[in-house]
Amino acid sequence: MTLPDFITSSHVAQLLDLPSAASFLARREELEDLGFPQPVAWSHRPFKWRSDLVLAWRDRQGYPRAVGGKLQLVTPEYLMERAATA
To answer: Global pTM?
Structure first.
């Protein structure tokens, strides 16, 4: 899939396997606390993000998943912790 250089929240939601742009925007602050890139300076709404930065973050961190209502990154360490409690 070829992405434009700047993508909207709908594209970001698809890349992060979230159900909608609204669900991404609702979690945006939490994702940014985890190092997710800030939107680019843009003179109009909607917000836009650099697709290369979003893809790089996603590839470094793994897909975010909700665990107990809180966003949790699925990392190897997380998977080992979950496996130890199974």
So the answer is: 0.68
